[in-house]
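Input record (one chain):
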Amino acid sequence: MYYWVNQGKTYKEEKAGGYLWAPIKNSKGNSFFHWENMTNLKPADIVFNYCRGFVVGYCEIKTTHFLAPQPIEFNVDVEWENEGYMVDAVYVLFTVPIAIKTAYKNIHQFLPEKYSPINKAGEKLKIKANQGYLYQSNQKVAQALFKLANIKYNENYNNEINEEETPYELPKETSRQNLTTSRIGQGAFRQRVLRRWDYKCAVNGTSIIEILIASHIVPWREANDKERLDVENGLLLSPNYDALFDKYLISFDDQGKIILSKALDTEDFQKLGITGVEKIENLTPQNAKYLERHRKKIQ
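The corresponding structure, as predicted from the sequence alone:
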């Protein structure tokens, strides 16, 4: 499924933390469809990120929703109840953000008459985002936006879900508070991983911070609360390496040398820029312990 999220006041915080969050109700006890849409999100769904006049990128959803208090890093003056819905997400920036006028020109014919994330309004028919958070979208909108962003669109991409990732089991009521408090710390986790790896990809040294991903060695869903925020359980990876590492198509031995899955041909790895001689130079013994668990699941 495809969605569109309006994040004018919270994009920076949500991107840094690797999540989406919306309140369940406002201070008057009212809920709205665009908040309730959070409960429909599933792993591998794609959400386009709109912020201050531009579609700046997209994120891939990693979990189903869970209950979480409003992130403490939010610096917004709003009348929300504290409890809300949260999902984990991996953010990807477009090389060049898409201006709202350009986006509307290319997708307006595919937008619904009701519950559209953007429309023309006012006497001058100015294009602007509606006052809502998460909107359901469709494949035609996705195709158009990916084309504008010069990204090759794969219509099957959105259906490639790792069965081990779903269904995502929600924690029991008694443990939710501790879990959600830990999840909100993911923004801090990313910052620690950035510093740990000197703001460079651990494998190839890429230093474009905007695209680097603080990847868990032992995935969030399999780690305990301490391991989820342990900087030693993190590798800073550029997107290709992160995607392959997340799907257990590559791993690393105790000396940091890359291990390639037999599930892909050498030619496939080469097309992705993976040579098979890559090596992480400064692994710690703690990194190696987490990698030992990761290697057991390589395909």
